Amino acid sequence: MIDPYEVLGIDRDCDSETVRAAYRRLAKEAHPDSGGDGERFARLQASYDLLKDPVRRKVYDDTGYDPELADAKDLKGVLLLEPLVNEMILDEREPGSFDPVAAMRRKLSDDILKSRFHILELERHRARVRKHLARLARRKSDKGNSDVLGSMLRARSESIAEAIRNAETQIEAIEQAYVMLEGYAYELEHDGEADSPAEKHLEDKTAQGKAAE
């Protein structure tokens, strides 16, 4: 995901006229017909298209992502981080007295574990359904009639399979949200002193280890 403000070399609080002026100036230099770089020109065009649209710009400013440019996986990660950021803002504790980033990582790690346990339970259910189907027999005289029980069990097996696929997709989204938190550290205060870089690094490694389990 590109940063349109960085691409155009403008401040985030600039007005639409500044956006347009920056785009026109840079586009003249980068346009392929003027001997410029086509890839750079494409980035300029994409950045301008984003920032000239008030709705898209607002979404990008609020989330750091644009639905039309961002990878679908990233957008799912953003949606999962959104409520965690809200919890961080609404927490009444004094900023610096707790680590909201570590709390986000713990929450995501817990959600991954819950989803994996849910998949195991669904797989057990599906195995039981399949065993019932394997043992289900019908009298020869009923062969021409509808297989009601068999159809219901097969439909139930497919529903469980769909639930498993959804849970796996959810795990991928949670893992992406976790990746998006990498590189962030939060400075805590203890008696007027912030955590040392070594302490923060150890905390990050511990949280990453839990998510990988």
Q: Mind explaining what this structure looks like?
A:
With 213 residues, the protein is an all-alpha fold. The chain has two domains: 4-70, Helix Hairpins (Orthogonal Bundle), CATH 1.10.287.110; 100-212. The chain is built from eight helices and two strands, in the order αααααααββα. The protein has helices at residues 4-8, 16-30, 38-52, 54-63, 72-90, 100-135, 148-180, 197-212, and strands spanning 189-190, 193-194. It has a two-stranded antiparallel sheet. A hairpin with a 2-residue loop joins β1 and β2 (193-194). α5 packs across α7 (148-180) and α6 (100-135) packs antiparallel against α7 (148-180). The radius of gyration is 26 Å and the shape is elongated.
